[in-house]
Amino acid sequence: MERTDISVARFSDHTKAEEAVKALAQAGIDMKQLSIVGRGYHTEDNVVGFYNSGERIRFWGKYGAFWGSLWGLFGAGIFLSSPVTGPVMALGGLAVVLLSAVEGALAFGASSAIGAAIYSMGIPENSVLEYEHALKTDSFLVFVHGTAGDVARAKSILATLKPTHLDVHEGVTAGAIPAPVAHAAK
To answer: Which residues cross the membrane (predicted)?
Structure first.
């Protein structure tokens, strides 16, 4: 099994998360090494909907423009709702992992598919629970996975953006973190 490092930055609002993704991309971090996941919109009495038309996605919800602008940067995305986190959108390699978790049987003791997907990347269970809680409170998570050097560089970039929390999981063992594939975005 391949060992990798993973940095996870938490942001309390969508503009900071979008700024982080753009800063990482501008610094030359390969988009295949990035994932973003978040909720950040409340359904209450409003219907949340979306449709995918090629590379474009539309939402009826508070952060539709945010997710729509990021959709084109990533090769994969998934929208799902779970009792633990409510409606969640994930873009990037984590979306492919999440799709696999949803399609297959969840063996992990987490109460959500998003938790199982994050755990399958090799992130420790206690951190998975923290990330699920962050999603419940409308935070956005930006993941960067890769070599120790890539993740250290990404961490220094992310730190300048003042996330509410910044973690690095070193030498985690997981199955290959898949690059985004077309079927996950369809």
So the answer is: 63-82, 88-119
